[in-house]
């Protein structure tokens, strides 16, 4: 069974127009004018159980609106939607017991209560049997290092501590699908890494399906095998991260420092037939560009090490953020191998 199935999903908002000036404001009082915003524009995709899928796009692309429809907070304008076999907005009570949600910008914990009391309240909301709750809690406390935090009021936690508690809260009922909206926002690199490790491990152990919205492309690199990219409410890419990188990435670059001065002609000769390009910054420093899908870094270095004195080197890979920028610039990408224009 697919964990998430979406077909022709659409959400329009009616937004009030504000007319200009005093006259306009007075006219607005008597006759409101509205215009439509299409936040999600007939999108379709399905996500199998156990997949970690990144859901990305620029601000206002329609990510949060999708997540809100998938979690039953918003009712779609049109289209089909099944999550865990449920229509989220119709069967809310049953449905929410089977999903977990973290909105990085908003808390689901009670601000003035101790963390453990929030967890106990959630146990009641989700109707988790006491035994299951206790064993699940023990595991989460251990994995997310929460033992010191359990009796502190939520308002006294640091952002990173709170986010670890938010994750535990969203998982206390062992949901099979988790929606994470910006779960690492504002966190330092250490906490980010811990959270990524935890999510990966949870996915492997329990086969939890995760839909992850993020602006941090490192999250995607660390976790997601698949990426769905939205632009202006439409899906502009749906496929593997590797394919995204291969198609849109510029490959790798090796920046080399030489112990003795070098000439580009000699270096080019050494790497002849490999399809790489050289550029010399000065006789002691050169850069090799390796297009994706050609040769490996070690193959290139293999040709050089015995011929050239290399004193230092740095390998640079095109970041996913650059790739995304590139796609936005051209306004098109491939969905399932078919060229789609945004
Ligand atoms: N309740 C609402 N009423 C009117 N318009 C809305 C509402 N919610 C969202 N929108 C509009 O719908 C579009 C998509 O917004 P959405 O919040 O889904 O984007 P997003 O991709 O999550 O952006 P961000 O990364 O900034 O969170 C935007 O143009 C936004 O202004």
TrEMBL record:
GO MF terms, alphabetically ordered: ATP binding
Domain of life, per lineage: Bacteria
CDD domains noted in UniProt: ABC_NatA_like
Residues forming coiled coils: none
Keyword Nucleotide-binding on entry: yes
Domain ABC transporter, first and last residues per copy: 24-257
Keywords associated with the record: ATP-binding, Nucleotide-binding, Transport
The UniProt record lists the keyword Disulfide bond: no
Protein's UniProt name: ATP-binding cassette domain-containing protein
